[in-house]
Model the fold of this input.
Amino acid sequence: MVQGVNVEEVLAAHRDHGRAFTAAGVRSFVLDEGPSDAEPVVCLHGVPASSFVYRAVLPELARRGLRGVAFDLPGLGLAARPDDFDYSWTGLGQWASGALDALGLGQVHLVVHDIGGPVGFELAAVDSGRVRRSFY
Done:
C-alpha cells in the first residue's frame, strides 16, 4: 500500500486491461482500445514509464472513433528485458516497427513522450510509409 493506493490491485487491473504479445522475439504488453478498423494512434511512452501512462488517453481516443494503442518498450513496464537487446534509438525503432507488424497495424498516427520521441523518429525512418502524422 502506497499512500492509500494498493499497488498490486492497480497493477492487476492494468494487466487485465491489456494483453501480452511478442514482436521480434521480445515479449511485451499492449493496451488497445477502440474499433479494430479505426485509424490507429500509437502512443509511445518515455522513461521511466510504460503504456500505463496512456491509460486515460486511449479511452478518449476510442470515444472519438480512433483506435488507441500503447505498448511497452523492451526493458520497461511489463515488457521483457533481454540482456542482448539493442536498446539504442535505432534498435528500439526497429523493434517498434516489428511491434506494429505483430499487432497487425498498417499506417498509424504517432503520439510520443520523452524517449518515445527518438524511438518514433527511428520508426518513421525505418518505416516511413507507415507513419501518417506525429504529435508531440
Notes: The domain at 19-135 is CATH 3.40.50.1820 (Rossmann fold).
